[in-house]
Design brief:
The structure is a homodimer. Chain A is of the alpha/beta class. Chain A folds into 2 domains: 311 residues, Dihydroxyacetone kinase, domain 1 (Rossmann fold, 3-Layer(aba) Sandwich); 209 residues, Serine Threonine Protein Phosphatase 5, Tetratricopeptide repeat (Alpha Horseshoe), CATH 1.25.40.340. Chain A is 45% helix and 14% strand. Chain A has a 6-stranded mixed beta sheet with strand order 1-2-4-3-5-6, sandwiched between helices. In chain A, a hairpin with a 4-residue loop joins strand 13 and strand 14. In chain A, helix 9 packs antiparallel against helix 10. The termini of chain A are far apart. At the A-B interface, helix 1, helix 6, helix 7 and strand 11 of A face helix 1, helix 6, helix 7 and strand 11 of B.
Chain lengths: 581, 581
């Protein structure tokens, strides 16, 4: 279990701070993560990696010559926000564009995707690439749905080494895709980890049993077996990987492979070496030539007891990239050039300007006061129900929905107050609130709620008086944006199951001429019923829901919190259009 | 707990094999451990480190340019045998002598000391140095009694960097002593580890409590407190270390220090970084300039949950040595030169010649048959009582006495049979048996029993017929050698409490003209009583006995096994002098 922390909410930030202090020769802290202390050489594509905290040396430990140019670091097991990623990418950019790389998890896909869009707005060309190496997480025909685990390392490294050669962004992206297509991992686990401040493990594996294919956040595996011997564990993993050779590899014999035997946290070095002994023998017997093996802790989950085996089937080009030197805090290879002298202790770069707001009409500024009241009500209802939301989420997920929502709504309210104080209109207040929510909450729900507030704010603007129709159109925009970004549809047991009927009912009632409060009331009733109905649903396959099957009979946490929020907002809406207060 | 293993007895060997297979660019396996793949440059002093398995990257992971030239690797938490150390040192020797370095534990002191003596016999100049950095293990005025923990690394590194500069052995030893005198560590622990094949932890710490100063094998600490926050843990360790500055350092302000924050196994990287953040702040506030800090797992105890802080107070010379480049499997620093191409998979070097024995008289060869019978009885009695010996040892120690004795007696018997088949006399049979016992059993008892058999064999020789007086003189030699090597006296609750009265009684009875069997019988009765009396004793402070205070009321395991053996041997002694069968 995680025992050494201060305020659990500050854990990830404090860890990043300590990490940066211990590695000044390699990295420099910036808002949202770290970049190379020496910077990105001008004209070189920057590879920016990232993901949640708790997986060290992924992701900050992999920043340095020959590997990543920057890492965006989220909260514990939560994606960094789009704002964080954008900040790191802007600091890492060397003028030749940025490749954003991460493991394939819903929250990361959302935030990195949004960041790429915003970077384009900043004039920085950005592409995204999600690693999908875990063969136990989806069938071969659905390999694009697979999770990324320790295969992150060889895929990141191939792309970064190509960037180091000076190749253009499109080519670096092509190398990443090629490396990913030839990289496969398979893991087993014996026990879960307990997150900072939690009083029970995130997931458990029965005593003397082994979960086959369990994900690094407790995502479901493909079976459970008795605890194996070290040799049996080696055979299980090698056999699984030799069964699914990539395109272009007809048989293992005569092939070369990069091999990574990765410990998740409390399977220790000696055990890994005992297992590796057999892995090497089995691969040797299959005719595979092992190139520069790595045996150690390269992607962890705190002190989770588990181990995974990764093979990257090398061709000449991939072998060259795998063998290329690297010099990072946690991964060093070959003969790197001398370290730069320790960089000056850099201040955190603050690149978000929240001291200025666009001009707004008096009417819109008046409406902004209602927005504040609504956000205050939202923060209040979430605070009251945070523990309940956590409990519901823990049935099938990692139980942090309440924490994330509390962090998000608090930050949204603070940002809204700041913007209002600066004279912002209703639209800008909502946009600032949305950005702060996404930035501070992280995770999937943070990204989606940020989008909801931003969509609504963009529709309302800072000029016109918001009417019921305008609010309904804003909610419909938000509903569309959430479906587009999150990729979920009605029936997938997500907040979309509530947001879509809520938006439809609101649009219908507003279109029929009802005043906002009445229209919202009808829509909120629909939302509550829809949230309760999610208890009858199973999540769609492939989404990051550990133990999805257990959630039958329990509503979706995101759907439930959305319904609570619609009800709370109704309580502070005026009985008449927003301008008539 | 340790979950991935095959035969627990083969764990350490298999781990070493896998380690070597994964790191062919750095190390080459030899009998007893590993040496640098590139060898020791001619004329360079070789630094050979070592200790038990279970502490990776200590010790094999520290072999490579700029650090150790070789590592002798013992069984799990057991010293390598003198034979193993000698073998590694012979392979590592570059013609300028060898410095043997290890943490200050009884078994290591014994075996490395013996190895140095034998290396002298091989014509290789060897010195020993024990690291004593753990300030919680003895008071400042007894600092030579302290254990070695993570301070091993900076002390090994200083000596090795000096060797790399081409300095002579005496100077390298002086550097080691200087670095050790300025290196201090302090640790805390939250839970113990479970060794391969064991069904319960080696030691435990109560839930939500912290053991202050607990040793890495569960040796007793100096107190127990509530689980601290990360900042409190940092403050506790920094305060303890700033309280005991080395000679020549009057105050921390203005000093430079190498800082190592070491995780013992399942305190993970992010937690270490959170703690390091505060360590750095506290040292900064005290005016200490941190030089090249290391935060990670550098000396572990399987998955023990614990953390230690090490400071080496640097002067200009020590800073130069600390900053010097290094390139080993687990520790890389600066700008090392390119790796050598992977060495050929080296066969294990077999450098012990057990195919030839010295000439012996017919009489002595006849007596050797009695020696075989005695060793057979010894192996039998140990096998019968192995579980009981383990249970007795577990009260205060690590519970492996039965395992070690079984391994040793089995090996001794096999070696004796081999020597006898080659025509050896009684003396050579005993010497071979003793060497095999020490080599295969490892640990403190292995070294001492090896010495007992070797002393007895040396006295008996291969020419004369062993008389009762000769046997008694041999046993007295053994008693003297055990006291000299082990440093224990009567009353310290060790086998010495039995060996000394046994030897004295035997000498007295033989001197009085009693035949061997009768003299031995008297001595065996004395031995049994003395062994039982050890239940009333407390072990001497500073010896490696975890939970020593718990052992009151239980006899010492080593004393008990010695008494059992004297009784078993009596059962096979002829009723008349050994030559009259």
């Amino acid at each position: 279990m995680t025992r050494l922390f201060n305020d659990p909410a500050a854990f990830a930030d404090e860890a990043l701070e300590g990490f940066a202090a211990a590695h000044r020769g390699w990295v420099r802290p910036v808002t949202g993560g770290v970049v190379r202390a020496a910077g990105t050489p001008a004209g070189q594509v920057a590879v920016v990696v990232g993901g949640g905290s708790g997986h060290y040396p992924a992701f900050s430990g992999l920043v340095g010559r020959g590997l990543a140019h920057g890492a965006a670091v989220g909260n514990v097991f939560a994606s960094p926000s789009a704002q964080q990623i954008r900040s790191v990418a802007r600091s890492a950019d060397g003028g030749a564009g940025v490749l954003l790389m991460y493991g394939n998890y819903a929250g990361d896909v959302l935030h990195f995707g949004q960041a790429a869009e915003r970077l384009a707005g900043d004039g920085i060309e950005a592409r995204t690439f999600a690693v999908t190496d875990d063969i136990s997480s989806a069938a071969p025909e659905e390999s694009a749905q697979r999770r990324g685990i320790a295969g992150d390392l060889p895929v990141f490294k191939a792309a970064a080494a190509a960037a180091e050669e000076g190749l253009p962004l499109a080519e670096v992206l092509r190398v990443a895709a090629h490396a990913n297509a030839r990289t496969r991992s398979f893991g087993i686990a014996f026990s879960g980890c307990t997150l900072p401040g939690a009083d029970h493990p995130l997931f458990t594996v029965p005593e003397a049993r082994m979960a086959v294919g369990l994900g690094i956040h407790g995502e479901p595996g493909i079976g459970e077996e008795s605890l194996p011997t070290a040799d049996e564990a080696a055979r299980l993993m090698v056999t699984a990987l030799l069964k699914e050779l990539p395109d272009g590899v007809d048989a293992p014999a005569g092939q070369r492979a990069a091999v990574i035997l990765n410990g998740l946290g409390s399977v220790k070095y000696e055990e890994l070496f005992v297992v590796y002994r057999k892995v090497a023998a089995l691969l040797g017997a299959a005719g595979v030539d092992i190139v520069d093996p790595e045996v150690g802790e390269l992607v962890t989950s705190f002190d989770m007891a588990g181990v995974s085996l990764t093979l990257t089937w090398l061709d000449d080009r991939l072998e060259e990239l795998w063998r290329a030197p690297a010099d990072t805090p946690a991964y060093r290879k070959g003969a790197p050039v001398a370290q730069d002298p320790a960089a000056e202790a850099a201040a955190y770069v603050e690149d978000v300007d929240d001291t200025r707001v666009p001009d707004a009409t008096e009417a819109s500024r008046g409406s902004a006061a209602h927005v504040l009241a609504a956000l205050n009500a939202v923060a209040g209802i979430v605070d009251t129900h945070a523990d309940e939301l956590g409990r519901i989420d823990a049935v099938a997920g990692d139980g942090d929905h309440g924490i994330g929502m509390r962090r998000g709504t608090t930050a949204a309210l603070e940002a809204a107050v700041r913007a209002h104080d600066l004279g912002a209109g209703a639209g800008t207040v909502l946009v600032h609130a949305g950005d702060a929510w996404a930035d501070k909450a992280g995770g999937t729900s943070g990204a989606l709620w940020g989008t909801i507030l931003r969509s609504l704010g963009t529709r309302l603007g800072d000029q016109d008086t918001p009417t019921a129709e305008a609010v309904a159109r804003g909610v419909s925009d938000a509903s569309d944006a959430v479906r587009r970004l999150g990729g979920a549809e009605v029936g997938d047991k997500t907040m979309v199951d509530v947001l879509v009927p809520f938006a439809d009912t609101l649009a219908e009632a507003a279109g029929a001429g009802l005043p906002l409060s009445e229209a919202w009331q009808r829509a909120a009733v629909t939302a509550e019923k829809a949230a309760a109905d999610t208890a009858d649903l199973l999540p769609r396959k492939g989404r990051a829901r550990p133990h999805a099957e257990k959630s039958l009979g329990t509503p979706d946490a995101g759907a439930h919190s959305l319904a609570l929020i619609t009800r709370a907002v109704h309580g502070v809406l005026p009985d008449h259009p927003l301008d008539q207060h």
